[in-house]
Amino acid sequence: KIDNITAVDLYAEYPKFHIDVEREQQRLLEHDIVVFQFPLYWYSSPAIIKEWQDLVLEYGFAYGKSGDKLKDKTLFILTSAGAQESAYQTEGLNQYPLRELLRPFEQVAHLCQMHYIPPLVLFGARTAKEDGRIEPHTKKASALFNALSDGSLTHESFGDIDLSNHYNNANTTNKNNEV
After folding, report:
1. What is the 8-class DSSP label of residue 59?
2. What is the pTM of this model?
3. What is the CATH number of the domain that holds 34?
4. Measured in whole angstroms, how far is the alpha carbon of residue 74 from the centre of its chain?
């Protein structure tokens, strides 16, 4: 429900995984910020996102010789994880911080000459509704989208933090929602 955002449900549009590469590349050309929103499945994205990447981010379009169509665009991951953030630590159940598990997306951004924004994660998603954490998370995501869209927040703003969850700058606000 934010102006200038096109939401695409890949499973709804491509239930048989027959991705329209030309259409998807055109969408990429028309937007400056690309957001992959998905639940974390076995430490990665759902299969259709990988399929989309394999087909749409072609050599000569997204990377390689003359493959600079995504140069200086921004890539941002918005995901949910069933476990709490403490499980995604070196000493935690999953042995790795979530940023490390999502490193392939960061490499995609690098290869495609895009700017990478640290992921925003809804941890403990299985109990988020009961715990009243959906609305605050949605507000934070909305504020991030708005700030990225209006240019008040850039990839440089994040410095070296691992997750957008940890970004907090009282000087960066949008519609009175702190980012």
Report:
1. B
2. 0.87
3. 3.40.50.360
4. 9
